[in-house]
Design brief:
This protein is an alpha/beta fold. It folds into two domains: 46-58 and 65-238, Rossmann fold (3-Layer(aba) Sandwich), CATH 3.40.50; 243-295. It is 47% helix and 12% strand. Strands 2-1-4-5-6-3-7 form a seven-stranded mixed beta sheet. Helix 5 links the parallel strand 4 and strand 5. Helix 7 runs antiparallel to helix 8, helix 9 runs parallel beside helix 11 and helix 10 (263-277) crosses helix 11 (282-295). The termini are far apart. 29% of the residues are buried.
Length: 301
């Protein structure tokens, strides 16, 4: 028996041993890290994952556009809607990667589909059981922690990561691969992941080429990189819109907010705006509408 053991036995045998032990227990409780705060999933339909705090912050009002105003993406809209509806109803569904041209409504579509799914469920007398959770790109490594938090909750969760991509030397994509498919736990049945990216394969070409040049088997190195995108069951491509689609977007917004009474003049202004910006896209159309509504003294809230 060591002298340390003898000291402990002596302390326990002292008349005030119980009081001493109680003080030690309280001190240890104060030193222990606080557990993650419980989330009230009834408080909102959308949340933001705060990885540094390990908590989900409710979003009372989501910044989104009605799905009826999203033009020129009918095919991908229908595919994503059907996939999300199956998931919300408890059936099998795929993780989705929405990739392609900037400003063509990738993130807007995810948020709009979420809103429409819950709206249609409520109209049919069902619960608004689909929750949208946004995770920031820099917090991807905490995705397993978030999924473990959501797995036992009696809701279905759509985890959304906007503008997902990885830079050279970034190894967090390996954690994402394991979560999507292949990990020992796999994806919880009540969780699905949607991501948007300007790149189809998420990783920069120079990163892939560097792996090819230094690998013993270049083909296997490239497969390792490309396989990340393969883990998404749905690849939905968004391409630059035509002038016709761009004007349809503008007219849709104008009709919703009651601006642009002189149709021909309004179209000419919209085309000039796109030319000045150097691109036609849903984002450009929305920015033009904000400008036109402001000049007309109207709000687009």
């Amino acid at each position: 028996m060591t002298s340390h053991d003898k000291d402990i036995i002596a302390a326990l045998a002292a008349p005030n041993a119980a009081e001493a032990l109680l003080r030690i227990a309280h001190a240890l409780e104060r030193l222990a890290p606080a557990g993650a705060p419980a989330s009230d999933f009834d408080s909102a339909d959308a949340f933001i994952w705060r990885a540094e705090k390990g908590q989900l912050s409710p979003v009372p009002r989501v910044n989104r556009v009605d799905m009826a105003l999203l033009r020129g993406i009918d095919r991908v809209r229908d595919i994503l809607w059907e996939n999300t509806e199956r998931f919300a109803n408890g059936f099998a569904a795929n993780n989705a990667l929405l990739w392609g041209a900037r400003g063509m409504g990738k993130s807007s579509l995810v948020k709009a589909v979420h809103a429409e799914i819950n709206r249609s469920r409520a109209a049919g007398g069902k619960s608004r059981g689909l929750k949208l959770i946004e995770i920031h790109r820099e917090d991807i490594e905490s995705l397993p922690q978030l999924m473990a938090r959501l797995a036992p909750v009696p809701y279905r969760f759509l985890i959304f990561c906007d503008d997902l991509s990885f830079d050279a030397g970034d190894t967090s994509y390996k954690s994402l691969k394991a979560v999507l498919e292949g990990g020992i736990e796999g994806r919880p049945a009540n969780v699905i992941l949607y991501a948007t990216s300007n790149r189809r394969h998420l990783l920069p070409r120079d990163m892939i080429e560097n792996e090819r040049s230094t690998a013993i088997n270049p083909g296997e190195a490239v497969e390792e990189k490309v396989s990340l995108s393969d883990r998404f069951g749905l690849w939905l491509g968004f391409h630059r819109c035509s002038q016709e689609d761009y004007l349809a977007m503008v007219e849709g917004y104008a009709g919703r907010f009651g601006i642009g009474a002189d149709r021909d003049a309004f179209k000419a202004e919209a085309l000039e705006w796109a030319t000045t910006r150097g691109e036609r896209s849903g984002r450009t159309a929305w920015q033009f509408i904000q400008d036109a509504a402001g000049r007309a003294g109207k709000s687009v809230e």
